[in-house]
């Protein structure tokens, strides 16, 4: 039986011959750990994420152009078989932001500044909201009373905002999208309902709103489930002649509303056109003719 040292020598000789023949090129040197970010720098900021961590890229300029066009994690490099320390810390920072977006409440000063009043679903706290989606689709008795007292009845379009799964998305987009949307719809001569904010709301809450206010079209601006690319993504779910239990396929969705996707102002203008088309055709979702 060959001893351990003999086996090592045989292996070394095989590797040497393969290298000489060109069949086994020299392994690339291990990537160096990139320099640490400046003290206090936000690793999840766009500026930090724009810095390529891949050393010896074949086309550094092309890599920079690609990183400017996507939020995907490209050009992160590695340190041996593992992620760079900065990459790992950035992942953890993004994960923390996503958790904050879910568990935080929307700043009440924002709601007040926009002149909205707040109602709540049948969820009494965030834990109930996350574990009982069905209760997030139903308005509380107090919410129903407030809507009947404070809102215009039988509007052409009823718009409201809801925290959904990302309070961060509401804080990042609502002040820009709501004015653009309401002004666009008013310019088309449509009767708009009184806007408001729903706490602990799911998309299906718009069906209950439609029944209470007898609105032709309801549009909810809601925070979407955050990912590691962004926690600021909002969507607009639009439905015609809604009622509790309406199939999900009847909803028209405009998604990916955030500064690196469809910007809030652009989304407001686009949603205006979508709602006008829905009212003309008297249908939404899969029934809507593009």
Describe this structure in words.
The structure is a single chain. This protein has 290 residues and is of the alpha/beta class. It has a domain at 105-287: 3-Layer(aba) Sandwich (Rossmann fold), CATH 3.40.50. 41% of the residues lie in helices and 11% in strands. It has 10 helices and 6 strands. It has helices at 4-21, 46-49, 60-68, 85-103, 108-113, 126-131, 141-150, 167-187, 205-213, 264-281, and strands at residues 118-120, 157-162, 197-199, 217-223, 234-240, 252-257. It has a 6-stranded mixed β-sheet, with helices on both faces. The radius of gyration is 26 Å and the shape is elongated. The protein starts with a helix and ends in a 9-residue tail after the last helix.
Which structural class best describes the helix and strand composition? alpha/beta
Q: Please report the number of helical segments.
A: 10
What is the end-to-end distance?
76 Å
- What's the total count of β strands? 6
**Gyration radius, to the nearest Å?**
26 Å
Shape: elongated
CATH architecture term of the domain at 105-287: 3-Layer(aba) Sandwich
Which stretches are poorly predicted, pLDDT < 50 over at least 5 residues? 25-33
Spatial ordering of strands, largest sheet:
1-3-2-4-5-6
Helical proportion? 40-55%
According to CATH, the fold-level topology of the domain at 105-287 is Rossmann fold
Main beta sheet: strand number and arrangement? Answer: 6 strands, mixed
Q: Determine the mean pLDDT.
A: 87
CATH class of the domain at 105-287, named Alpha Beta
Strand content: 5-15%
């Amino acid at each position: 039986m060959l001893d351990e040292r003999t086996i090592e020598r045989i292996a070394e000789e095989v590797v040497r011959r393969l290298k000489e023949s060109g069949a086994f090129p020299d392994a690339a040197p291990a990537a160096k750990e990139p320099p640490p970010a400046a003290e206090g720098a936000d690793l999840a900021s766009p500026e930090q994420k724009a810095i390529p961590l891949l050393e010896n890229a074949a086309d550094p300029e092309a890599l920079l152009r690609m990183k400017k066009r996507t939020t995907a994690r490209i050009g992160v490099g590695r340190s041996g078989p593992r992620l760079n320390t900065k990459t790992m810390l950035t992942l953890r920072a993004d994960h923390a932001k996503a958790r904050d977006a879910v568990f935080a409440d929307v700043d009440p000063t924002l709601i007040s500044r926009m002149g909205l009043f707040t109602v709540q679903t049948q969820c009494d706290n965030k834990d109930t909201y996350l574990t009982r989606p069905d209760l997030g689709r139903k308005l509380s008795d107090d919410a129903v009373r407030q809507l009947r007292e404070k809102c215009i009845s039988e509007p052409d379009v009823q718009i409201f905002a809801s925290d959904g799964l990302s309070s961060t998305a509401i804080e990042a987009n609502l002040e820009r999208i709501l004015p653009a949307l309401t002004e666009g719809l008013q310019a088309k001569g449509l009767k708009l309902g009184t806007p408001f904010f729903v706490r602990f709301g799911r998309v299906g809450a718009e069906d209950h709103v439609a029944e209470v206010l007898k609105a032709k079209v309801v549009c909810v601006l809601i925070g979407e489930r955050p990912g590691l690319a962004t926690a600021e993504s909002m969507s607009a779910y639009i439905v015609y002649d809604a009622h509790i239990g309406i199939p999900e396929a009847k909803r028209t969705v405009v998604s990916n509303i955030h500064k690196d996707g469809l910007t809030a102002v652009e989304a407001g203008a686009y949603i205006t056109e979508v709602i006008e088309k829905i009212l003309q055709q008297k249908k939404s979702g899969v029934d809507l003719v593009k």
